Sequence to fold (83 residues):
Amino acid sequence: MSDINLADFKQNEKDTGSSNFQVAVLTQRISSLTEHLKVNKKDVSSRRGLLKMVAKRRKHLDYIRAKSEDNYKKLIEDLGLRR
Fold:
């Protein structure tokens, strides 16, 4: 998942705030932090930050799903979020 091309999720060149882009950024950060926590098991503050990021991504995904089911399905498929 860490090989996500963030440019693919932008709606235009200056896009930084759309929900699709935010989910992609959060997914990349979550993946990176998960790898960090595999090595540093006692890093409690980073684990808390990870849980906050996961919750924020979930809220963005819920918003996207409410707006467009097709967009939601395409996004989770592109990011590989569901197994």
